[in-house]
Amino acid sequence: MSFVVEVLEASSHANKGSDVGIDLGIKKQIALSSGTIISRSNLTRDDEIRLACFHRAVKKRQARNLHAKIRNKRLDWTHKTTVQLAQQYENIFVGDLKVTQVIIKNKKISKGILDASPARIISFLEYKAKRLGGKAIKVSESWTTVTCSECLKKTGPTGETGLSVREWTCSECNAEHNRDVNAGQNILRLGRQALSREPSFETETSRPIL
With 194 labelled, which of 20, 21, 35, 69 sits at a CA distance of 20 to 30 A? Predict the structure, then answer.
């Protein structure tokens, strides 16, 4: 039995004017521009030994049930985390992580990306924010990891070797950065710039009709 329920969207957000930039990752799923890191363990990796045993023993039902359990845990965490963010911030700016491009470039981390589910996090943030009277806006994350959020110089570690560097110091202004939080702060800056260029409802409706 199923029910159709109409959920009304809030006319305004409870925390008017609050905003945050979010950098999505693999080991640490969510890094906020405020400095907060929100993460969970890799649920697939946690149970990979049990899954391998079920597959070797051709226990299809047990393997299917365990896959469903992992999927439900992942969904539960994503739902709870995104609703908390949507409740806390009116404007959520999130990096538009190109999952398929990353997988193609580095197949070694593809399992981690699929477990982190960044696309699902973005999707959940978009509809939950809208329902609560806020916005979730995707921002290009190009260069956000290597750009110093203080002086805006591209002094951060680059290339595949740079992926393992989590803390770095800007060679221009000596600002110390956490790689993911710094990216979140750049995403926040870019998001605010994009939002300031959006025409307001009042501006649009106040134009004379010719």
Answer: 35
Averaged pLDDT, 40-57: 82
Does residue 9 belong to any structural domain of this protein? Answer: no
The answer as to whether 91 is a domain residue is yes
Tell me whether residue 12 is in a domain.
Answer: no
Mean pLDDT across the stretch 37-46?
Answer: 87
Q: How far, in whole angstroms, is CA 39 from its chain's centroid?
A: 11
**Phi then psi for 191, rounded to 5 degrees?**
-65, -40
pLDDT at 66 over 50: yes
Task: Pick from 59-73, 131-145, 185-199 the range whose average pLDDT is largest.
Answer: 131-145
Residues 6+ apart with CB under 8 A from 144: 23, 95, 182, 183, 186, 187, 190
- What angle separates helix 48-56 from helix 60-88, to the nearest 10 degrees? 160
The secondary structure element, H or E, covering residue 104 is helix 99-105
120 is a domain residue: yes
Secondary structure element (H or E) that encloses residue 85, with its range: helix 60-88
Flag the least confident range among 55-59, 67-71, 139-143, 196-200. 196-200
- The two three-digit tokens of residue 79, written as one number: 């739902």
